[in-house]
Amino acid sequence: MGQVKCYNDFNPVSFDPIAIIHSQMIKQDAVGGYVVTTGKFTHNAYTYAKGLGIELINGNQLVELWLKHLETKSESVTGLSPVSQI
Q1: Which of 6, 63, 75, 85 has its CA 20 to 30 A from that of 39?
Q2: Is the full-model pTM beyond 0.70?
């Protein structure tokens, strides 16, 4: 279960999307969920999500995950040796 919100830091994500994910988790017997935003979450959002098995990923964390992915991808590409063609 997941939900993505494209918000800025001046419009933080409240607990509403978390409540929706939690409801869907219960209906579908899911063990976890996530809400991702390009911005921030409110304090109430973090409080609400605590203990529900819902991971909140804010904009800074999203960039860190993206950079880590690029680093991993770069390492796998540089680890390849060129194949000579005959």
Answers
A1: 75
A2: yes
